[in-house]
Amino acid sequence: MTWTSNRRQFLQQSAAISTAIWVGSSTHGWAQPPSANEVIRFACIGVSGRGSSDCDDAGRHGEVVALCDIDDEWLNKAAARFPKARKFTDYRKMYDEIGKDFDAVTISTPDHTHAPAAARAMRLGKHCFCQTPLAYSVNEARTLRNLAAELKLCTQMGNQGTASSGLREAAEIIRQGQLGAIKEVHVWTNRPQWQQGLTRPATVDPVPPHLHWDAFLGPAPERPFSKETYHPFNWRGWIDFGTGALGDAACHTMNLAVMALKLFDPISVEATPDPDWTGEARKESYPKFSTIRYEFGQRGDLGPCSLTWYDGGKRPPEELHPGIKQALSGSLVIGEKGSLFSSNEYHSTYSLFPVEKFEGYAKPEIVASPGHFTEFANAIKEHKLELAMSNFDYAGRLTETVLLGNVALRAGKKIEWNGPQMQVTNDTSANQYVTRDYRAGWGLT
Question: How many structural domains compose the chain?
Fold first, then answer.
């Protein structure tokens, strides 16, 4: 039985998942939220690709007063749609010059600049919408989560599937125990759709006049420009700039299982990458393919569970479910009483098995979401952090789970994880991958 949902949406998420944790009182001032009749003023960082649609969403929900991008061609194209907005090529300069003139930011840049741009904005009291993954490193995800809580700011990560009724219904079915105790989850993707497993290119090309290469590098180590290698798209596969297939897709495809089963703070993570991922390639880019197994211990009344991730053409064993062979991306949640299968990255559709067991099953009652970005705008206007369901409390924890896979990949061994302490406990050298170094002037402060 397959369900496609477009009707009443999910009732409020449980407080443990959707409500931002407020930690003490802030010593920093946050921007007074606009009243229901006032306009939210947005500054948009990264304005092409997904950033273009984020700019448009900001314009529909308020006023775009500033645009920032490292590519003048993209910047000017966006400025044609928002002619009153001021233009910048460095978000730091934008914050310094007109920080008082906007209420919120959208961040739609390469992964390595998400957290530096977001953290600075939040410390200025700005509400923050940031694309997936929320951060480049586990430490950055924790930092943004803590900042949002401390400063009581409205936040949202751009995993739009969180607002889909299919995902929310499926999560509620799992929570209600309709599948019984869940022992294993499998999640796979058609990524990477760019090259990985590469060494640094030998060619050095002149930087195009429209590209601000130093601003593109941002917090990453300096390296020469190479045409068609990093900009505009292939940065995802390079360790200095992206988070690989896992970072690109897992905040979407793992979202259902993580939300429904509270898959936070795994006790161990083990990665099996492409065996040819060796030498210099291992230092420069992510492997061509990998399988990553997360183990989770007892979580309240939820028992131990595993989640296995597959990318680069790898998939779960076909005998687990007949739809695996045809689904380029998908997820499968296996319980003692049944299973839930989705071949949609955002989980807008799903199927319950065995079919005969769930024939005629009444779907859970849910309440319609006004839309993913609208949740964020409403949260700002009403200053109710929980209205944005992928706020940084939830999104930060989801992103930590996801990025621990990259820690295990780069460590080259099974890691054992202490979530509260944010430490790999069985190999102290692996903790270097929990955080990162920053070029001077491009850090989180």
Answer: 2
Pair type for strands 104-107 and 127-130: parallel
Neighbouring residues of 130: CB distance < 8 A, sequence distance ≥ 6: 106, 107, 114, 118, 144, 155, 156, 157, 158
Q: What is the Cβ-side half-sphere exposure of residue 1, based on CA atoms within 13 angstroms?
A: 16
Q: Do 20 and 386 form a contact (C-beta atoms < 8 A)?
A: yes
pLDDT in tens, 197-228: 999 999 999 999 999 999 999 999 999 999 99
The verdict on 144 and 256 lying in the same domain is no
Give yes or no: residues 55 and 140 share one domain: yes
CATH of the domain at 410: 3.30.360.10
319 & 353 share domain: yes
The rounded distance, in Å, linking the Cα atoms of 265 and 409 is 17
* Mutual angle of helices 138-151 and 114-123, in 10-degree steps: 20
pTM above 0.90, yes or no: yes
* Residue 38 domain boundaries: 13-162+376-392
| Structure confidence by residue, pLDDT tens digits, 307-339 | 999 999 999 999 999 999 999 999 999 999 999
The single-letter code of the amino acid at 15 is A
DSSP string, 138-199: HHHHHHHHHHHHHHT--EEES-GGGG-HHHHHHHHHHHTTTT-SEEEEEEE-----S--S-P
Q: What is Dmax (Cα atoms) for the chain?
A: 64
Rounded Cα distance, 66 and 82, in Å: 9
Token match 């990560």: residue?
Answer: 157
Question: Do 117 and 186 fall within a single domain?
Answer: no
Phi, psi of 264 (to 5 degrees): -115, 155
